[in-house]
Specification:
The protein is of the alpha/beta class and 299 residues long. It has eight helices and 13 strands.
Length: 299
């Protein structure tokens, strides 16, 4: 009983690979070693006893599949997902769709953030994404450099809400965090002039408090939001732009909306209610998911 009474609840605020930093509910912080068998992410609630801890049940967990096919949790107890893109570097085709599917499977409110609005090509990117996504999700033109749109982002990240930014390396996630949290002083990477890609700057996932009362989790960048933790059979349910069509039932219960007769998605596609590029993006992600499901997971 005495051991149980000495336990303290807290939140994981940083993950260093071999250790985690925990902030207790009274504001104190400590660093604890991480056992190989323990799988926790920033945002997780834990119960600490001495030098050990146990993870408490999680909600609002953002997951992605890494390049080796393993499903990875990115952050926990989230409310918001900001999908950060920029005119330079260009994010991989389907990155936004994958981010939106991941948000929907975790029941997060998503928003597309077009950073570097002061650069050439930002307005054209905004017009293109608005044409494709404005009826599905909020889209903001912002700039960490000029501060454009940051007030709206702070308002979105209001008190009691926790968010995370995802984006390929180089789109300015660290710059955005520096602008929103001036005392943070994260390193900012440069764009490789040959590849056009950014280099990974953030290597440790960390949680930060905003003046508005909200919280932001900074995560290492990744160049592709690998097939999300959803099955190929479930994908259409979460895929952006299929909502209206799927209010009706396909002829076949296990329809994957590829070429099956009596498919309501294909009917909407033929009638112009679903854009061809949207269906093509769905097929691309479906193929990746099926490939991931058929390949044995690495040991």
């Amino acid at each position: 009983m005495s051991e149980l009474s000495s336990s303290q609840a807290g939140t994981v605020i940083a993950h260093y690979g071999i250790a985690v930093a925990v902030r207790f509910d009274d504001g104190q912080e400590t660093r604890l070693p991480l056992k190989r068998s323990q799988a926790v992410v920033v945002g997780d609630r834990v119960e600490v006893q001495g030098e050990g801890f146990r993870a408490l049940p999680s909600a609002g967990v953002l997951r992605r599949r890494d390049s080796h096919g393993r499903v990875r949790s990115v952050a926990a107890h989230l409310d918001l997902l900001g999908i950060v893109v920029a005119p330079i570097p260009i994010s991989p085709v389907g990155f936004i769709d994958r981010g939106l599917v991941a948000a929907r499977t975790a029941n997060l409110e998503a928003r597309i953030l077009i950073n570097k609005s002061d650069l050439p090509g930002a307005e054209a990117l905004h017009a293109d994404l608005s044409d494709r996504y404005s009826d599905l999700v909020e889209i903001d033109l912002i700039s960490a450099h000029t501060q454009k749109g940051l007030k709206e982002i702070c308002s979105w990240l209001s008190e009691g809400r926790r968010g995370v930014f995802v984006g390929t390396s180089g789109v300015g996630k660290s710059s955005l965090l520096n602008a929103l949290l001036p005392d943070l002083d994260l390193d900012v990477g440069e764009i490789n002039e040959v590849s056009g890609l950014g280099r990974h700057v953030t290597s440790v996932a960390t949680l930060h408090s905003l003046e508005s009362g909200g919280e932001l989790i900074d995560t290492p960048g990744f160049r592709d939001f690998g097939p999300v933790a959803v099955s190929s059979g479930e994908l259409a349910t979460y895929f952006p732009g299929f909502e209206a069509a799927l209010e009706y039932r396909c002829h076949f219960r296990n329809c994957l909306h590829v070429s099956e007769p009596g498919c309501v998605v294909l009917q909407a596609l033929a009638e112009g209610r679903i854009q061809e590029e949207r269906h093509a993006a769905y097929l691309s992600l479906l193929k990746d998911l099926q490939q991931a499901e058929s390949d044995p997971l690495p040991k």
